[in-house]
C-alpha cells in the first residue's frame, strides 16, 4: 500500500511538469491567434485574460474564471494539478483530443528521445574502458625498476 502511494505521488509530480508544459503550449496557441499579446502567460492580467477567456470560449466552448486563471495559469510552479475537466479543456485548446492524449503524446516522445540518447552513447562506456585498460597496461609495463631489453633480428 505504501509503495502504491509513493508511485502515485511520483506520477502526480510528473504530471504537474506536463501541466507546466501544457501552459506553454496554450500560451503559444493564444499568441498565434492574438499577435498583440507579447507577454508571458505568467504576466497576463486584465485584458489579456479576458481575451484568452473569449478565445477559449470561441474555440472549445469552455470557460475558465479569472480566479481560476490566477490560481493555476499564472503560477510559475504548480504544486498540484487542476481538475481533469480543466486539463481536458486546455489540452483541446492546444490541439489535442483531451488530457490523456496530451500525456500519451508527450510521454511517447519522451521515451523515443531517451532511446535515441541511449543509442548515441552506447559505444561511449565500452570505448572508455578499452582506452583506460590500454593506458593502465602501458603505465604498468613501462614503470617500475629499470629493465634492459635486447632485440635481436
Count the helices. How many?
A: 6
- Gyration radius from CA atoms, angstroms: 28 Å
Low-confidence blocks of residues:
none
> Which descriptor suits the 3D outline?
rod-shaped
- What structural class is derived from the secondary structure elements? mainly alpha
The chain-level mean pLDDT equals: 83
Order of helices and strands: HHHHHH
The largest sheet is: none
Number of strands: 0
Percentage beta strand: under 5%
For the record, give the distance between the C-alpha atoms at the N and C termini, rounded to a whole number: 76 Å
The share of residues in helices is 55-70%
Q: What does this entry look like structurally?
A:
With 153 residues, this protein is an all-alpha fold. 69% of the residues lie in helices and 0% in strands. It is built from 6 helices and no strands. It has helices spanning 2-33, 47-60, 66-73, 84-93, 99-120, 124-142. Helix 1 (2-33) packs parallel to helix 4 and helix 4 crosses helix 5.
Short description:
With 153 residues, the protein is mainly alpha-helical. The chain has helices spanning 2-33, 47-60, 66-73, 84-93, 99-120, 124-142. The relative contact order is 0.09.
What is the strand and helix layout of this fold?
Elements: H1 2-33, H2 47-60, H3 66-73, H4 84-93, H5 99-120, H6 124-142
Helix pairs in contact: 1-4, 4-5
